[in-house]
């Protein structure tokens, strides 16, 4: 499961939300699990609560109640969510549960019958009602002020920008459409207004997220909305172009390789959005993809990648894959390895297939033994690591723009345009970094590379 990093988990480490409650102010804690889309949900919940006069507690002891925003995508994610609920009950005792696992309330209450309430994903009003019932609000109109950007659980200088909910795909291994529903895009002008507020508040990197970013606006038939004296279409190309005018880095996640994705590449070549595409390919063999109910034109995808790189040579491609999917033969897996040799993707993640309650893939024949999944995962990651190491070695001597994430006494932790926070690599500056500030964009010369990270020095 992809979970928030330790410094975004108040139950695990230092809190990113720090404030002193006024006397008598009701306070709420938050444990946010799962993907960045769930993190955005947590931020929205906390923003609404803060606007109603609740304080935000950085630890269990200081909270009148704790909300656990769960993940329910894989069985391992469900187990972690149940563990987090149990810990919150032990440390605080008054716990409300929301998020994807909340779509299965009996599953939660069967394990933890003492939770106060269970709500499903992005059910903001129901969460607020549950909090009101557990901890009545006590707003103070002259004290409880809310910043325009709302409550953020990420560092100040970057923010996730969720542009839609749900998904129209019917991948056999996935239950997200069952939990979060079909695609529901936000109007373009609403997304752009939020982005403007974030940039005005100091955000220097916007991370655009959804379940299927390239399908943005399909459900709205790409309608138009007034914007800046003109109109903007609810379409990912138009949205990306407008976001690129705001002066922040714009990074696109969860892009499916539809034909119109080619229209995004010139925006990257022109510097309006970062030359970075996060595309969940999942596999390369046509039969495996067919069993997944995924698009099967892997060879055509290689042609697309070549065309994209011809337009924007600095393009970084990130993807995720599943090994050990039911029915995957050694020949099918070898096709995936050969495809990786040709595709030369920059950033790669890989998961061993797991059954998920409610997924249609559970009923497929010829499930792969666990030891074979593990062996294939190791071979896949060995190849992915070798590709990453060679690509990063080629950056030594180059001069790159990087964004500063963290400044400590021994080094500054930064990211290049090729690196998304928490999932990709870092670039470290270990001399002359003392005056740097998080969110600052500086120029460096790369001096050293490892399998996933870079080291460099500041240049003018």
From TrEMBL:
<dbReference type="InterPro" id="IPR002792">
    <property type="entry name" value="TRAM_dom"/>
</dbReference>
<comment type="similarity">
    <text>Belongs to the methylthiotransferase family. RimO subfamily.</text>
</comment>
<feature type="binding site">
    <location>
        <position position="35"/>
    </location>
    <ligand>
        <name>[4Fe-4S] cluster 1</name>
    </ligand>
</feature>
<keyword id="KW-0687">Ribonucleoprotein</keyword>
<dbReference type="InterPro" id="IPR058240">
    <property type="entry name" value="rSAM_sf"/>
</dbReference>
<keyword id="KW-0004">4Fe-4S</keyword>
<dbReference type="GO" id="GO:0005829">
    <property type="term" value="C:cytosol"/>
</dbReference>
<feature type="binding site">
    <location>
        <position position="174"/>
    </location>
    <ligand>
        <name>[4Fe-4S] cluster 2</name>
    </ligand>
</feature>
<dbReference type="InterPro" id="IPR038135">
    <property type="entry name" value="Methylthiotransferase_N_sf"/>
</dbReference>
<dbReference type="Pfam" id="PF04055">
    <property type="entry name" value="Radical_SAM"/>
</dbReference>
<dbReference type="GO" id="GO:0051539">
    <property type="term" value="F:4 iron, 4 sulfur cluster binding"/>
</dbReference>
<dbReference type="GO" id="GO:0005840">
    <property type="term" value="C:ribosome"/>
</dbReference>
<feature type="domain" description="TRAM">
    <location>
        <begin position="393"/>
        <end position="460"/>
    </location>
</feature>
<protein>
    <recommendedName>
        <fullName>Ribosomal protein uS12 methylthiotransferase RimO</fullName>
        <ecNumber>2.8.4.4</ecNumber>
    </recommendedName>
</protein>
<dbReference type="InterPro" id="IPR012340">
    <property type="entry name" value="NA-bd_OB-fold"/>
</dbReference>
<feature type="binding site">
    <location>
        <position position="100"/>
    </location>
    <ligand>
        <name>[4Fe-4S] cluster 1</name>
    </ligand>
</feature>
<feature type="domain" description="Radical SAM core">
    <location>
        <begin position="153"/>
        <end position="390"/>
    </location>
</feature>
<comment type="function">
    <text>Catalyzes the methylthiolation of an aspartic acid residue of ribosomal protein uS12.</text>
</comment>
<dbReference type="Pfam" id="PF18693">
    <property type="entry name" value="TRAM_2"/>
</dbReference>
<feature type="binding site">
    <location>
        <position position="71"/>
    </location>
    <ligand>
        <name>[4Fe-4S] cluster 1</name>
    </ligand>
</feature>
<dbReference type="GO" id="GO:0103039">
    <property type="term" value="F:protein methylthiotransferase activity"/>
</dbReference>
<keyword id="KW-0479">Metal-binding</keyword>
<keyword id="KW-0689">Ribosomal protein</keyword>
<dbReference type="InterPro" id="IPR005840">
    <property type="entry name" value="Ribosomal_uS12_MeSTrfase_RimO"/>
</dbReference>
<feature type="domain" description="MTTase N-terminal">
    <location>
        <begin position="26"/>
        <end position="136"/>
    </location>
</feature>
<dbReference type="InterPro" id="IPR006638">
    <property type="entry name" value="Elp3/MiaA/NifB-like_rSAM"/>
</dbReference>
<dbReference type="GO" id="GO:0006400">
    <property type="term" value="P:tRNA modification"/>
</dbReference>
<dbReference type="InterPro" id="IPR005839">
    <property type="entry name" value="Methylthiotransferase"/>
</dbReference>
<feature type="binding site">
    <location>
        <position position="171"/>
    </location>
    <ligand>
        <name>[4Fe-4S] cluster 2</name>
    </ligand>
</feature>
<dbReference type="GO" id="GO:0035599">
    <property type="term" value="F:aspartic acid methylthiotransferase activity"/>
</dbReference>
<keyword id="KW-0411">Iron-sulfur</keyword>
<dbReference type="InterPro" id="IPR023404">
    <property type="entry name" value="rSAM_horseshoe"/>
</dbReference>
<keyword id="KW-0808">Transferase</keyword>
<dbReference type="InterPro" id="IPR007197">
    <property type="entry name" value="rSAM"/>
</dbReference>
<dbReference type="GO" id="GO:0046872">
    <property type="term" value="F:metal ion binding"/>
</dbReference>
<dbReference type="InterPro" id="IPR013848">
    <property type="entry name" value="Methylthiotransferase_N"/>
</dbReference>
<keyword id="KW-0963">Cytoplasm</keyword>
<dbReference type="Pfam" id="PF00919">
    <property type="entry name" value="UPF0004"/>
</dbReference>
<feature type="binding site">
    <location>
        <position position="167"/>
    </location>
    <ligand>
        <name>[4Fe-4S] cluster 2</name>
    </ligand>
</feature>
<keyword id="KW-0949">S-adenosyl-L-methionine</keyword>
<keyword id="KW-0408">Iron</keyword>
